[in-house]
Amino acid sequence: MERIGIYGGAFNPPHVGHLRAAEYAQRELQLSKLLLVPSGTSPHKALPPNSPTADQRLQMLRLAAREQMEVSDLEVVRGGISYTYMTVEQLKQQYPDQEMVLLMGTDMFLSFGNWKEPERIWKNASLGVFYRGEPQEIQQIQQQKEKMESAGATVYLVKNPVNRISSTQLRRMLAFRCGSEFLPNGVETYIWQNGLYDTAEDYRKLPMEQLEQVAVRLLKPNRVAHVLGCRDTAAALAKHWGADETDAARAGLLHDITKALDGPLQLTLCREYGIVLSSFFENNPKTLHALTGSLVAERIFGENTSVVAAIRSHTTGKAKMNLLEKIIYVADYMEPNRDFPGVEDLRRLAFENLDQALKLGLTMTLQLLKTQGREISPESAQALAYLEETGV
Ligand code: FE
Ligand code: FE
């Protein structure tokens, strides 16, 4: 009996990781055909704002599809909420003599009991489960597999190669005008030609309110409060010390703008921007978000040189920092969501003696890095040495 795979998802946008998983499943499960089924409206996850239309996602997927893959518009045409049992039943009617295999990830498999009409799914299709291979995960999915098989389901476990990209991260990369290496050829052109994922948006010199909306969209939700706190603290410090309040607020709002990207993606962004990195950054890509944030502030948001420089030095500091640079460094450290022993001293000091506050922040950071056995950036060491030399 021939086997046909069903690979559903938002595909927002489709990327090389999807294709790799698809080809892997084709090979491991010996599928004669793989149906790619973009969701209409997913019951598990609503699409983020500014997403392309369902038709555009279909188009992109058609451009991405490789040999023995076929795009099905069944869920898009049906409209409304895409329930998997309906899709599986419909496809089984189209292919009554073939074995259908519904592909899914570990999380979906483990929560299978919560799906709508799970029985109607496994009565019409086998389940092909991609797993990553962590020991605890294997135990959980083995248990679930046994449970489901004793009920009558057929389950195949497929070890999935690790994927470097997710659609969420790719959308961020696209907003930064990056990420082409993760897009199948035709898809990249289609995105740019149609201005999808904000690629046609001009973010330069946005008014404050709009800047906030864009920043919030690009951050991880758990970082939003920190960033807004940093913006307000920076503006308050600027007012107190006579710096430009607007610059301070904008730098505060944008200082962690690339923080959601993981280390490898930070390196990708630098590569695509044509930046050559020092060995410290190559070895500590997580600390790159200050540099990449400053590049994005300059190239994407069109910020002025003061704002760009303040973002650039916000994690490590540097020798001879100017007023705005000091303010952003200290504001990042003491904004209202920060909580660590000594934060109250720092908050008081920031309004009494900014240099002392800066010195305290730098000292605490270097101490922490030392106890953690981590490498100290040359810039931080120089920043502290400079303060000591000048008698702070
Ligand atoms: Fe930061
Ligand atoms: Fe921060």
Question: What is the CATH first-level class name of the largest domain?
Answer: Mainly Alpha
Spatial order of the strands forming the largest sheet: 3-2-1-4-5-6
Helix content: 40-55%
What is the CA-CA span between the terminal residues? 79 Å
| Alpha carbon gyration radius | 25 Å
CATH topology of the largest domain: Hypothetical protein af1432
- Contiguous uncertain segments of 5+ residues: none
Strand content: 5-15%
**CATH architecture term of the largest domain:** Orthogonal Bundle
Mean pLDDT: 93
Q: Please report the number of helical segments.
A: 20
SSE class: alpha/beta
Give helix and strand order, one letter per element, not per position: EHEHEHHEHHEHEHHHHHHHHHHHHH
- What's the overall geometry? elongated
Small-molecule binders here are: fe (iii) ion
List the domain count as a whole number: 2
Describe this structure in words.
- The chain is of the alpha/beta class and 392 residues long.
- The chain has two domains: 3-167, HUPs (Rossmann fold, 3-Layer(aba) Sandwich); 202-389, Hypothetical protein af1432, CATH 1.10.3210.10.
- The protein contains 20 helices and six strands.
- It is elongated.
- The structure holds fe (iii) ion (2 copies).
- One fe (iii) ion binds next to helix 11.
